[in-house]
Each structure stands twice: as C-alpha cells, then as structure tokens.
Amino acid sequence: MRTRKNLLLVTVTMALSFLCTFAFAGGHGAKGGHEMVPIEGGDYVTISGTIIDSHKEPVAEAVITIHMNGHDMAHVETAHNGHFVSDFMVEAGTMETAHFDMKVRKTSFGTKTLPFPGSDFAKIGKHYYVAEEVSLDRVLGPAFWISTVVFILAYVLIAFELLHRTIAAMLGAAMMLCISYTIGTINPEFRIYSFERAVYAIDMNVVFLLMGMMIIVGVLKNTGVFQWCAYISYKVAKGKVFLLTVLLMIFTAVSSAFLDNVTTMLLLTGVAIEIAVSCNLNPLYLLIPLVLASNVGGTATLIGDPPNIMIGSYAGLTFMDFVIALALVCVVGMGVMFVYTKLVWGKAYATAQASIANVEEFTAELKEKYKIYDATLLTYGLIILGFTVFLFLSHGYWHMEVSIAALTGASILFTVGVVTKKVDVLHLIEKDIEWPTLMFFIFLFILVGAVEEAGLLAVIADWILDLSAGNFLMAMTLILWVAAIMSAFVDNIPFTATMLPIVAYLSKVIPGSENTLWWALALGACFGGNGTIIGASANVVTMGIAESKGYKISFIGFMKTAFPYMIISILIAQAWLMIFRPT
User: Fold this and answer.
1) Residue 42 domain-assigned?
2) Over the stretch 468-480, which tens digit does the pLDDT of each residue have?
3) What is the pTM for the complete model shown?
4) Is 375 found in the same domain as 274?
5) Is the pLDDT reported for residue 489 higher than 90?
6) What is the pLDDT of residue 29?
7) Strand order in the sheet with 63-68
8) Are residues 493 and 474 part of one domain?
9) 54 φ, ψ (degrees, to nearest 5)
10) Which residue range is the domain that position 37 belongs to?
11) Same-domain pairing of 128 and 44
C-alpha cells in the first residue's frame, strides 16, 4: 500500500511539474532590459525586426544592444520566433541627425553590428519606427564542441546499452544545462542554451500521443483480445505453420499500424512463444518474422512507429498523409517479406508442421486457454478505439494535434474502466504507462535541441547539401540510406530526432523535394530498424522477453537473418520514392 501511495505521489508530482513547466515556458516573448524612460515632449522610437541564421531559421535569445550617438539606449532579447521589439524615447528634434548602431550577439554565432542613420526611420506624428532583418553566421566555438562531445557520448551510451537509455539521455541533458549555467555564466562562449529553450525543445505532442496509446492498450489488455486473435490465427491456419506465421505477421503489421509496434510486440510475444513451443518450433523462427512485420506495418501510419510520430509532429503531416504516401509501399514490403520468410525458415516450418499429431485437439486447447474474458469492456474499448481512430484519420480537418485524439480516447476509456471497476487505476499507471520511455523522449528532445542550438545540425545539413549538390535524387538517396544504416546500429528514435531539423532545412532549399524527403527519412528510419537487434525498440523488447524465457539470439545471429531483408526493403523504398515521388 505504501508503494502505491508513493507511486501516486510521484505521478502527481510529475503532472504538477509539467504544468509548472508550461506555465514557466509559455508566453515568453522578447525581453527588454531597459524600461522606457519618459521624456517630456520627446519622440517615441520603435526598432523591431527578426534575427535569422544562414538557413533562414529564427534565432532565439539573441541579445540586441541599441546605441544612439554612442549612448546605450536599449537591450532586448529575441523571442522563440526570432522577433524583437524595442521601444524608447529620445529628445524631440534629435532623430534626423542621430546615428544608431544595433549590435546583435549570441553564443555560437558571430557578433554583428548594423549601423543606420535616424533619417532611415519612418515617421507618424511623434513616433519613429524601423524594422530590420539581420542574418547571423555560425561560429564553431566552445559551446559547439562541448555540446557535440556530450551528445556523442550520450549517443554511445544509448546505442551500446552501456546505461539505460533514459538515464543516458537524462545525464546528457543535465550536463548540457549544467555547463550552460556554471561555466557559461563565467564565460558566455560556453553557454549552450537556456532552460527556457530546453523546455521549448520538448515536443509534448509526441509525449502525450504515446501516453494516450499506452493507456488505451493497457485497458484493452484486460480483455484478452490479443491472445484470442492469436488463437483465431491458428484455427484459420489449420495447423499449417507457415500459413500461421503469415497470418500472425499480417495481424502484427495491422496492429502495429494503429497501436504502435512496441506495444503490439509486448502483447504478442508471450503468446507467440507458447504457440511455437506447442508446435515444436524454435520460437525465434516465429518471433523474428513478427518483429520485422511490426516495424514494416508501423511505418504505414503516423502513430505506428515512434519515428513517424516525431516526423509527423515536427513537419505538420497528418495521419492520412502517412497512409497515402507509405501504406502501399509497406504492403509491397510485407509481400516480399512473406517470400523471404519462406526461403529462410521454410524447412523449419515444414518440420514443425509434420510434428503436430492432432491439430483439432491442439486447437481446442488454445480455444480454452485464450478466451476473451471481458466482453463488456472489449465492446466499450472497440467503440472508443474506433472513435479515436476516426479522430486520427480526420485530425487534419479539425486542425487537431494527434495527441489530443489519443488523450481523448484514453481518458474516456480509462474513465469507463474505472467506473465499471474493471480497471485498477494504480496498476495501469504503474505497469502500462511506460514512464521511462516517456521520460527518455523528453530528455532526448532536450539533447537534440542543444546540438541544434549550438550548430551541429546546421553543419550536417550543409554537408549533405554540398554532397548532393542540391540534387533532389542524391539528397533523397543519402537521407534514405544513411537513415537505414544508422538506424540499424543505433536506436532509430534518437537518430530520427537528430535528423528532423536537417531534413526540414533540405526540404526548403532543394527544389521539388516537397514532402518526399520526409518519406525518405521515415522509410529509412523504420525499415532500417529491422537491420539489427538494437535497431528498433520493438526488436529490443521482443528479444528481451524471448531471452527471459530461455530463447536467446546473439547480435550476429539476428543480423544474419534480418539484415538482408532490411537491405531488400530499402531497395524497394528507393524504387518507390524514385518512381512515385509521394508528396
């Protein structure tokens, strides 16, 4: 009881922290350092404008100092959108002969001074005003190198599982901020970025979407529906192991498209192991095809795979945008996967099928074991899930973030479960909402925001642009294959987070790219996650459960069977993008 009370306290504390964070972060605009000093009979002066970088992106928290005839008149900081406004008063009649200097400075950028005479100001009555746009050039100073080193170290800890990924991301984020507020206070060249910018970098749309889907699946799990579907698959297959595998792969792919692949594999892995053992089949020969199918199926929709969630939120792409652009290529990928599965594990399936003595008897055993044990809750759940999917499909029309759809469905279903006393509130909060995963995303966004602020991502984007020479086909190919290879050897979530601002920049400067580069990133990151055992979260979760039950596969063992299919799927994606160029 004490543990549950402590858990509830932690949950409430986290919720309050989110609220406080938003309250603290919300509404920050340009901040002035001087109050307007009234001068009797004086003139009003307004200097406004935007500070941008070489990629035409806004520069936040740039410090602007305005001098008039050598005298310090105002200090102001740019807002998140790079805008600033400075108001002050001067003595009447002095503007026409005045000379102004506007000095703009920020860590990791070169300082720029913009001179302009008072005669450049527009005038309405006693009010003078002027608007300026200033472009700052990047400088690879101490903040750049420190943030890059911290980011790479955190990446290594995550990729090679030297620390739990949540701890590694938290450590990296904390180091970025600690250095900024200690050494960076003594010497501004070491200031990476502020707490406000760190909070601004967190994409809560992604966090709340994942949380909502975790709650929905957590409630549906209490009905036995996923185990029942596995039984139905075996019944339809009539003891034919390869056909059973194909049916389970289809079910896994479709479920992953609408629930997310990690959740789907969490629910199906245990059941798949039991069915495989009952069929005298090595469970790994069933689990590897299922996890490959989960990653391909999850690619088809905005909510199916975490990289897609991040891409959709960052680029403003809708659920239907993903379905229209990616669903068909995923269907083609699944068709090729069926053939590949037959070639790799066909003999093992045939041997297992021959060993099943009585198909009818085993089917009856599965029917008794895998029942839907709460039809009422399942009915409520399917209705609410259907409503949630409707909101996903139409969220572009409502101009609604997908997280709102997920949280709406989750809150309604959660309420139904609690009111009908079919769901244990504390158990769902403790076991079904994966807090470490949600916190990992939060700290990961802070980490990526830091290297974006310091200029690392701008350097990478310029490198890809130079290498592609501004050619769309070359840029698309680079993004697709780099994403695939990198995602195979490091978790595709941090890699995708790193690539988001890079692809956004390339989409703007390369003619004719439109949304196609986003689809290249999505296909590369999601399909590439099939390459190795650590390439995607679903892989890690599935093989971890299998190992806990005594069925372990090595890194090389997984790669031997999965990596060739990953290469085949990327070749399919390359051809798809070249021929159809989905926008």
Assistant:
1) yes
2) 888 999 999 999 9
3) 0.79
4) yes
5) no
6) 44
7) 31-32, 71-77, 63-68, 99-105, 112-117
8) yes
9) -70, -15
10) 32-135
11) yes
Terminal Cα-to-Cα distance of the chain (whole angstroms): 54
Q: Are 455 and 147 in contact (CB under 8 A)?
A: no
DSSP 38: P
Q: What is the pLDDT of residues 265-321, one digit of tens each?
A: 877 887 888 788 878 899 999 999 999 999 999 999 998 888 999 999 999 999 999
In a domain, 306, yes or no: no
Give the residue from 81, 113, 135 where a domain finishes: 135
Is residue 129 located within the same domain as residue 185? no
Do 561 and 484 belong to one domain? yes
Among the residues of 316-455, which ranges form H helices?
319-355, 359-369, 375-398, 402-419, 425-427, 435-454
- Domain end residue (candidates: 82, 116, 135): 135
249 vs 255: CA distance, rounded Å: 10
SS3 labels along 116-147? EEHHHCEEECCEEEEEEEEECCECCCHHHHHH
Q: How many domains does the chain have?
A: 3
Which H helix or E strand runs over 313? helix 306-315
Residue 538 lies in a domain: yes
For residues 432 and 270, what is the distance between their CA atoms, to the nearest angstrom?
A: 16
For 173-220, write each residue's pLDDT tens digit: 999 999 999 999 999 999 999 999 999 999 898 889 888 888 988 888
The residue assigned the tokens 């070639």 is 343
Same domain, 124 and 66: yes
Residue type at position 548: S
Spatial neighbors of 415 by CB under 8 A, at least 6 apart, are: none
